[in-house]
Amino acid sequence: MQRQISFGQALATVVGSVIGAGVFFKIGTITQQTGSPSMTIFVWILAGLISICSGLTVSEIAAALNVNGAIEYLDYTYGNIWGFLFGWAEMAVYFPAQIAALSAIFGEQFVTLLGLKGLDSKWVALGLVLFLLGINLLGTKAAARMQAVVTVIKLIPLALIIFFGFLNPHPVAISLFPPAPGADQSWLGAVSQGLLSALFAFEGWIIVTNLAKEVRDPTKDLSRAIIIGLSVVTVIYVLINYAFMTVLPFGKIAGNQNTAFYASLRLFGPVGGKLVTTGILISVYGACNGFMLTGIRTPFILAQAGRLPFSSKMGRSSVRTGVPVFSALLVDAIALVMIALGSFDILTDMLVFVMWTFTTLLSVAVFILRKREPELERPFKTPGYPLIPLISVIGGLFIIVMTVINQFVLSVIGLGLTLLGLPIYYWVKMTRD
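-> structure tokens emitted (433 positions)
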């Protein structure tokens, strides 16, 4: 693979993958869970800080190890089976489910925007997956350039809502300090539930590590893209949620999944609904392309190491474009099946839990490598060590434990699907040995 992805394109992949539909839909859930504007803003800031700490921590590994992404970071630290399970979870469910879910949201919003009541939104979703597959098959450079352009465009409606929200001549008065929960919620309950939802909205940044061998200067650009990207996302999330709460009464936001629509309607008039729907379309489109750009490389990475059945085919990339064609076809085929079955939301929720489990393992890996290989060259070192990595680990453990408590069956199924990769791992290992 050629080193053809610039820092700007890697940064756009981080921002574009994280900012998807969640920025428009999460506020209704989180305000209902926290019960107050102050606690809502608090959990968004806290989620951003935990995500940035995770980014700072994983960036040390990304800069130090000249290997291809999080799969091989886990290999290097814990052994091959852990990297394989992470790659299996990404390949078999996580990336296809993310692509399917985002495509489905795109299809629904597209049909609503154009008033195509007779058109099944699934056909639009299927068409989007095939269109993005075509774009990505044209080459990494074409897909990454499109990602950079879409990321800039998708920020425009967000910027408009934030800007005009702050200029609103009749803002709703809200108190931001001290962070206190609603009358019927406990402080710990409001923080735990709200933070869990907010952390889900930050999920997805780790996928940029799949591009490690295609970034021009991975020792510098990869860590910068992760850290700056997560910082930008945090600021956007906090500002957009503050704008929503100063435009609409809190009671009309809590539990309302159409908050962005009503806020835009209040700010811009009748055209606001179409504006925010267009913004959602662009945002979801960019996130979907970001997941596809990075997701199609997971089977390729596993196959190049000879870890999958038919690795000789899965490990090939196009001579002309450098794109792993068979890998792309596999991931997108699974995504198309998920769209047809319509069960992608459950799969996505399960794999968020699984992904945070592996992200926490990556944070712990910094402590292990510092002790095991103190002489390892580290072009980027996590600042505030060991505090920053410790915050990352605690944050990861929090989301794992709270998911088990609040969604036990879902977490068990998620782990079960991940562990299905074990028979394949040992079968390939035996046939190869």
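The chain is about 75% helix and 0% strand.
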